[in-house]
Amino acid sequence: MASTSDIRNGLCIKFNHDIYKIVEFLHVKPGKGPAFVRTKLRSLTTGRVLDNTFSAGHKIDDVRVETHNYQFLYAEGDEFHFMNTESFEQISLNKNILDAPGLLKEGTSVMVQVNTETDLPLSVDMPSSVVLEVTYAEPGVKGNTATNATKSATVETGANVNVPLFINEGDKIKIDTASGNYMERVKE
């Protein structure tokens, strides 16, 4: 058992007969009344996101997890296949468990959290950023740079990302996996 003071991003808890991962949280201490914690929870079975408020000191049922290093192999429909880099054992996970499945490139290393009681994979922690090549981008129009103008670009995994006008096909860009936003152009 844990309490609301133990809440942090990535913590897996049992709640409403399901296992949820805490995506965001905020400790609130209003001037009047008791403190509470606002959380955003993602179901690890369905992928649904829900908001919940816990009162301060509320006991929560946490799930014991182990973290293992896996490598992404390939995607087949809604199933994504991974290989444990130590034991070479392969697992397949539904795309609902993944935070940003559109940004996964073959060969990417990820951390998979596994429930120690049932040995079932719970969630996949992607790297904080990925470098992908732009496969399609409309040409930028000169003189359109007075403000932070962006255009849509397609990267090698098939995901669409809004990028600045100076990004062209063949450029490699760094993308934040948490938000899916463009970070910078990478020169090699």
UniProtKB/TrEMBL annotation:
GO cellular component: cytosol
Protein's UniProt name: Elongation factor P
Molecular function per GO: translation elongation factor activity
Origin species: Flavobacterium circumlabens
Superkingdom, taxonomy of origin: Bacteria
Similarity remark: Belongs to the elongation factor P family.
All copies of domain Translation elongation factor P/YeiP central, residue ranges: 67-122
Pfam family, any one: EFP
Pathway it works in: Protein biosynthesis; polypeptide chain elongation
Transmembrane segments: none
Localization of this protein: Cytoplasm
Gene3D superfamilies: 2.30.30.30, Nucleic acid-binding proteins
Keywords: Cytoplasm, Elongation factor, Protein biosynthesis
Gene designation per UniProt: efp
The keyword Protein biosynthesis is annotated on this UniProt entry: yes
Ranges of residues in domain Elongation factor P C-terminal: 130-185
Its biological purpose: Involved in peptide bond synthesis. Stimulates efficient translation and peptide-bond synthesis on native or reconstituted 70S ribosomes in vitro. Probably functions indirectly by altering the affinity of the ribosome for aminoacyl-tRNA, thus increasing their reactivity as acceptors for peptidyl transferase.
Coiled coil: none
A biological process from GO: peptide biosynthetic process
